[in-house]
Amino acid sequence: MANPKRKISRSKRDMRRANWFDDMKATQLVKCDHCGEQKMPHRVCPSCGYYNGKSVFIPKNA
Ligand SMILES: [Zn+2]
Predict the structure, then answer these.
(1) Which residues are close to ligand 1, an ion, with C-beta < 5 A?
(2) pTM above threshold 0.85
(3) For the chain, what are the domain ranges?
């Protein structure tokens, strides 16, 4: 029933995979709104320890 109409050719499949890592890199990092460092989205910032406006942990090198 809900199936792709055509098999994806080796070429098309490999074209998709060639850009997969670039897509990851583009979506993986956001700017921390506390210190401005790059961090993973929905994670505590590793450089200042803040998440959602609150200090979750004190970074060692503070
Ligand atoms: Zn931060």
Answers:
(1) 32, 34-35, 37, 45, 48
(2) no
(3) 34-62
